[in-house]
């Protein structure tokens, strides 16, 4: 329930509504508008390529070596974004903050990015779509990316002064997520309404479990 409702203080209760899909409480780090169905990728680690393996020290002896390292990183990052584009990936949902070079090439190749998502939000997306987080595969850029979720829409959403991301997923189960936008004059009223609604949903869950048995 916490991931399927958003409390918006400062608006009358009558402004409350139910939206299809889910609302992520983050703004786009990169937004590239697109029409129709698209593919999304979940990531839990930085996509900027590392210069060395974990635990291995990398020593730069000159400015030339440093600049060469930056060029290598940029080239590898661009190649990755090209690969995502060729696999029709248009949205990255990341639990970590991505570096500027990743955001730059994401914008260049038309890939929207939402970063710093909570573990609960990532788990909800995985549950809806049946997709696990993507693991980069080093130098192998030819492998087809299969860990993608079908997104029916992806757009910015402004809740008073907070910028959010509104996403619709094609669910692999009967569960079709909707998000409750709960409005009220102050936070305290919203919290009371949210608690009452959660208790009501819990009661309905128990009732349907009893009927099923």
UniProtKB/TrEMBL annotation:
GO terms for biological process: chaperone-mediated protein complex assembly. It comes from the Eukaryota. InterPro entries: BBS10, GroEL-like_apical_dom_sf, TCP-1-like_intermed_sf. Coiled coil: none annotated. Gene3D superfamilies: GroEL, TCP-1-like chaperonin intermediate domain. This is BBS10 protein.
């Amino acid at each position: 329930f916490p991931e399927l409702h958003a409390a918006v203080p400062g608006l009358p209760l009558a402004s409350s509504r139910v939206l299809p899909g889910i609302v992520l409480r983050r703004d786009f780090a990169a937004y590239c508008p697109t029409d129709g169905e698209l593919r999304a990728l979940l990531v839990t680690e930085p996509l900027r390529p590392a210069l060395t393996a974990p635990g291995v020290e990398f020593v730069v002896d000159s400015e030339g070596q440093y600049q060469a390292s930056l060029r290598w990183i940029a080239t590898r990052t661009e190649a990755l974004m090209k690969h995502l584009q060729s696999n029709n990936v248009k949205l990255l949902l990341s639990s970590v903050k991505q570096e500027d070079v990743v955001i730059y090439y994401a914008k260049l190749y038309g890939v929207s990015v939402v970063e710093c998502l909570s573990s609960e939000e990532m788990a909800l997306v995985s549950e809806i779509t049946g997709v696990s987080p993507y693991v980069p595969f080093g130098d192998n850029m030819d492998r087809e990316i299969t860990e993608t979720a079908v997104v029916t829409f992806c757009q910015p959403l402004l809740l008073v002064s907070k910028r959010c991301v509104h996403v619709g997923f094609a669910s692999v189960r009967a569960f079709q997520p909707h998000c409750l936008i709960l409005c009220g004059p102050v936070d305290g009223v919203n919290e009371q309404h949210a608690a009452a609604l959660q208790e009501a949903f819990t009661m309905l869950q128990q009732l349907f479990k009893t009927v099923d048995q």
